[in-house]
Amino acid sequence: MLELSISTPTREALVDITALVEEAVVAAIPQEKGEVFRGLVHIYVPHTTAAVTVNEGADPAVARDITDTFARLVPYDGGYRHREGNADAHVKATLVGSHTAVPLEGGHLKLGTWQSVYFAEFDGPRRRRIWLDLVASALDERTA
Amino acid sequence: MLELSISTPTREALVDITALVEEAVVAAIPQEKGEVFRGLVHIYVPHTTAAVTVNEGADPAVARDITDTFARLVPYDGGYRHREGNADAHVKATLVGSHTAVPLEGGHLKLGTWQSVYFAEFDGPRRRRIWLDLVASALDERTA
Amino acid sequence: MLELSISTPTREALVDITALVEEAVVAAIPQEKGEVFRGLVHIYVPHTTAAVTVNEGADPAVARDITDTFARLVPYDGGYRHREGNADAHVKATLVGSHTAVPLEGGHLKLGTWQSVYFAEFDGPRRRRIWLDLVASALDERTA
After folding, report:
1. Where are the domains of chain B?
2. What topology does CATH give the domain A2-136?
3. C-alpha angle B17/B20/B26, rounded to 5°?
4. Complex ipTM value
């Protein structure tokens, strides 16, 4: 497992971690395998008030629309039972999810044209960790 | 990686892709391995206004309830910052998620009794792609 | 694939299955490999009105806040097309998701400090199944 560490800037923010993940993946794949490694990178968030998602990276307005809509649907002050002032963040973490996986080809992330990988912070600013693992494809060379 | 291509019919629709995924999986597993291959098929959507989910396939009303409920929670005209008329679709993509994985046994999809795999379109109609990969189980024959 | 079986207590409940998953994983990894096995456990729910999520396990109020918020966002009596009295549960299943994956190290679950794995029941009480599979890490020993 590989561990990344980031600092989130505000209570709620989608932080683009695409370059960080790409850099860690490239460093982790032995060079001689880099050209042929095919599979997935599994991206896991070991926190309960944050999550990970893939969405548009070109226009930063999209990330803001996402956190704004989540704040409307699951308001900070929603009369929750959990008394630590971050119950909304826990609910949002379950709505977004604590893991994702992205294809790798030739040792690099293979995202869709407009896709970026985002760490979704809902109870920052904080120091946060991200756990990565690589999984090999079982596809036969002839069929892939 | 295997690529599927589909056309979605309307702006918002859940399109049942179970048979397409099954067909691609069967074609990708060399016949001689088919009977013993165990693992997962990873299903990835390389778009930012669409997603993938698993839900009931028997009654088409369920798929409509899902898109209708999403339209109520994240309305098309919600005063978003992103000015391309599809900000709602981006938010919905993060709510549903850009990937899933389904068990394989004997070279075939192993879904629950009522489950289908759905491509979730939120900004169609469009031509869309789906990326598949196979992952082998690490379970010992003796314990699985 | 490994199958777990649980009984859910009420119509809506997050049931902590961390210990069950851990026990099944430990039993499935041959002892001689236990100390070195690295990878993921894939956790799959073969139902369409239930889901799986990772969230805080310390304060049970968090699980209640999650089911309560979901009940507010997607009410039981929401004028749905699906006439079986559980359309809300289908929508919630897509919001939470039918699968997750958690890192394994040394043959054991490696969760974040506050994380538990929850089976999310939205149409109980019922007998439910959970399907587990193990996936090996492709990370080189030297880089992990």
Report:
1. 2-136
2. Jelly Rolls (2.60.120)
3. 135
4. 0.96
